[in-house]
Write a structure and sequence with these properties.
With about 550 residues, the chain is of the alpha+beta class. The protein has 5 domains: about 170 residues, D-amino Acid Aminotransferase, Chain A, domain 1 (2-Layer Sandwich), CATH 3.30.470.30; about 110 residues, Nucleic acid-binding proteins (OB fold (Dihydrolipoamide Acetyltransferase, E2P), Beta Barrel); about 70 residues, Orthogonal Bundle (DNA polymerase, domain 1), CATH 1.10.150.20; about 80 residues, DNA polymerase, domain 1; about 70 residues, BRCT domain (Rossmann fold, 3-Layer(aba) Sandwich), CATH 3.40.50.10190. Helices cover about 35% and strands about 15% of the residues. It contains 22 helices and 15 strands. Helix 16 crosses helix 17 and helix 16 crosses helix 18. The longest helix is centred in the N-terminal third of the chain and has 14 residues. The radius of gyration is 27 Å and the shape is globular.
Length: about 550
Amino acid sequence: MGCRARGDGLVGEDVTPNVACIADIPQELRGEVPAVFEVRGEVYMARADFAALNAAQAAKSDRLFANPRNAAAGSLRQKDAGVTRARPLRFFAHGWGAASALPAGTQHEMMRLIASWGVPVSPLLARCTSLEQMLAHYDAIAERRAELAYEIDGVVYKVDRLDWQERLGFVAKAPRWGLAHKFPAERAETMLEAIDVQVGRTGKLTPVGRLQPVLVGGVTVVNVTLHNRDEIARLGLRLGDRVVIQRAGDVIPQVVDNLTREVPREPYRFPDHCPECGSEAVAEEGEVDVRCTGGLICPAQRTERLRHFVSRGALDIEGLGEKTIAEFFALGWLESPADIFRLHRRRDEIVGREGWKDKSVDNLLAAVENKRRPDAARLLFGLGIRHVGGVTARDLMRRFGTLEKLREVAERAHGGDADAVAELIAIEGVGPVVVEALGDFFHEPHNVAVWDDLLSEVAPPPYVVETKASAVAGKTIVFTGKLETMSRDEAKAQAEALGARAAGSVSAKTDLVVAGPGAGSKLKQAAALGIEVIDEAGWAEIVRTAE
């Protein structure tokens, strides 16, 4: 058995020893089970168990947990599995991942099979055959919500047929065949006592409301995000206002109403200079966010970028938390990402500082050394280039393979090379905004210096995507016209799974054009360039023979 926390969708923390301690999860499965089957589900803590745990914590004068969700998450991620064993954790399966075989053809049948193997499944699971049945089931659960032994914030609807799920596919962070229907959030009234402005890694100024403590859904809320300058103006917020707050999705607190908007009071003035470095703070044309113009002279942006670089979605360097980065930055030891990989030179200086002993320092340095050959997409995401998130970073590396090739194309695109721009735009999810952001990044001398310095310390291997062996592996394919048996997104996904690249336009670099009814200019261009053209049936045969 191997178990991982969700992580970034690709890689999560190994929590196998801890999961093995959960009584709900069987050590052996019953019946006939596929050779490989990855069960996915939710670890939770019942309300009564949570109350008993906090009572025990209070009796020992230990820290109390904020809510069952946090208590369950913290218990599961303990380094000492013995601590996890002592916590009252439970488990429900809600689906599956990798599988060598699927013994049933529907979601409902698969969940019944998983339950028959001895894995707990929610008793509220139901198969509905109409929208009316789905909404009725939602309403029934909502009415019972307060009586349930555990906390929930909504229901999830899933397409039952697995072949339809496969056709619908996924977007970046979620399946197209699943939809969450949340319950209305609980609300409470309190006073807005102060507004602090925080500066993020991109220079964005984010206002945070400091509240008179109030209990919402079993959690004491003292801070609330106010999003941006326009949101404060929309709500007419001033210090001393009486506000209504709710926990969006029962997690994130937000202000939904201002009850004292009409009471005369001094208006709140959003800062026009950065509270950290004093640089001018402005909103670019067409944007609501106000950003510090200080760039890397702003200490807040520099430390936030370092925190982002070592975060779980980026290089995920254990031991380099917010407090450590702030400490080492203040000492002048961390100015840029490359400095992280030079910390071994300061080992003797770190040992002996408060909280640092030989073992903890060696663990930190070992974690750093373990990232000398990082995943290229994670490294790219970790650099914090504006508009380049984790998914876009993977898409870019899937196309270019190496960071050096990406830089070369981005620099040419910034210089006005139409072919380079087209090559970038052809990537799914990459548009003019991302192309401009990449070009701007490599046009800035300081960014280039940071990039070169970092790559002198690390050596990410070429980015490799596992694909099926096929006749189109390594080729560039363009789909045009109306596809009758699949969507355009499905076709592109099939091409990528076969090791090909799906482009949006025909050029001399195109290897194959798949043309459906109504194909126009792209089909003519393919004929003029002598590019092979096949119909949708021909493409289906290529896909079939590769499986």
